[in-house]
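Follow-up to my post from last week.
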Amino acid sequence: MRKAIALFCFFSLVLCLGAFRADAAGKEIKIGVIYPLTGPAASTGQVLLEGVKLAADIINNKYNLNMPLAKTEGLPNLGGAKIVIVSGDHQAKPDVGMAEAERLITQENVVALIGAYHSAVTATASQAAERYGIPFVNGDSTSPTLTERGFQWFFRTTPSDQLFAENFFQFLNDVKKKKRVETDPVAIFNENTLFGSDTTKFVEKFAKQYGYKVAGLVSYPAKSTQLTSEIQRLKGFNGRVVLQTSYVADAILSVKTFKELNFAPDAVLGNDAGHIDPEFVKSLGKDANYILSREVWALDLGAKKPMLKTVAEMFEKRTGKPMDGSSSRAFTAMIVLADAINRAGSTDPAKIRKALLETNLKADQLIMPWDGVKFDQKTHQNVLGKGIIVQVQGEKYHTVWPFDLATKDVVWPFPKWDKR
Amino acid sequence: MKKGLCLFFVFVALLIVFPLFFRNPFPRHLLIMIMMYAVMSIGWNIIGGYGGQVSFGNAAFFGVGAYASAVLLTKAGLSPWTGMAAGCVASLVLAVVVGYPCFRLKGHYFAIATIAIGEIMMGLFMVWDFVGAAVGIYLPILPQSFRNFEFHATKLPYYYIMLAMFLFAIGVAFLVERSRLGYYLRAIKDDPDGARSVGINIRKYKLYAFCLSAVLTSICGTFYAQYVLYIDPPSTFGLMISIDLCIISLIGGLGKLFGPVIGSFVFIPLVELTRVYLGSEGQGIDLMLYSLIMIAVAILRPQGLFGLFARGGR
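User reply:
Got it. Predicted complex:
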């Protein structure tokens, strides 16, 4: 009997506490977040999740930052409701991503989803969201196909690989104007797996569109240990600019071979990946100087965007890791989604979708080097996204384009090997 | 034996009524995955369990099944059911082409060769533009119908299609176990030279077993493609798929009819539930717990879980 009474008291207490807690928390808005939290990309997944969590913290509490919802607590149009993150792990497997999306939607009753980093998983998870009519905001998958599916509920804030390829030519045009130099013709040098050959497809398309002549193209197997004959051919094209897509080992090897063959075009413009790998500058040392590469984000942007610096410092304080292109994009996806929910003034999916379509964030409200966030009404791709170009100067990466965000002036042309 | 049969019918009846009680998509998805892995493991068990030829390349058949139907659907507009048949044919051809030379290899060397086969298929599909290379294939979203093998509103049809495939696989394994093929395979496993000396054509029967294994895996590939509606080489040809099949058969009980079934009813929920309830913060606790259980099974019941469930089973 005594035991029964004790048990009864205990459960009553738990119930009271539960009720109290629900009361104190006020209204909650559940957001499902799907990332690869274990498996081969676990470390990236963790960083992405931290980016989203930091954004939720800024939304839920008062911070003096010029971004949507920072200065208020919670979502003001929903009576100060707080964002609650429910995370799911997809382990980089498309079928798991789909199941997690379904589970979060039907069992956790999330009002919207964010994810999923791997393009393959984003493909299946967003399909589940589409089926249930739940908004899905993607901040970090760059496969162009994702926004070509004509989905109603899928929104992408990050630029796709296609846009990044277009950036090359916008950059070359800007340099041409600013430095009064010729940037035509270009030569293309790429590794031959999907990454390299896809980029090359887009580069060729945009070269035509921007009126650039392609002097020649050399593809090489990514695992080459010798690039001498390929680079000799490349040299023979006499292109002013070399547009290169490589992984890290071949990026390093190619610079060494450039030097050996005394090949110094006006610019070598790399495409992310190998050219921004920490190993690249470490193993090339001074020889890496003046190489250019595309990037999605850089810490030194903080010099021109103080808010970015503040957020990056908050991130580093929370996690002990520096903010990077992944976490900053995940962060931004959360801000964009919360802003839309707040404007919708409701958790009704259709209203959130409508608000997402009306999203119009300005460049100074973001921590990204973008012109803003505004979705194409048909594809739901953010049309104001932009990559940046960095250059190695003094063995460090510095943002050199877009010019208004640059921390260093671009060095053009690439100095000859014997004159540096 | 009668008791065993009764148990089996109760089990099937429970599976049939399961979706009536569980209306959320997640439990249904879980059961679908369990049965899919059960079908593939039953396939694996025919060659690996009865025949003792450990294959780490069965994902190749899964991928071929998935790609055959997806390619025929996207390029020629053929129904995935036709694609499933085409996938079986392609898998059979692959099984013969691979099996014929590889069955010359003994023991570990066969296992090593099958790893290579799986990885070669993956590499091939990664760069083959016609089948979408590394981007993979997005299956078109068609009006839902049995012919289109696509259902959007509910998972129920997928569930019952899988259940039918599951019963089919059990039927196949049952027949194999009782047939001459089954006895030959066990003889080959126990003592290949002895089996040869009594006149069993070792290579022929190993090939038969491999072909059955290929077909059961291939139909799951087609099912997977239609279920997830997106395939790419890592998710269909991945080495982990082959390894999972091997683990499931091992923890369930090698060379037993219901070994792989028990294995997948234990293994898949273990993986999925630990991930859902412990893995969402990404601390890896789910994986630790899961490995601990696996180690415990390996130490405490190296012969598999089979005997725990069906005492007196062979």
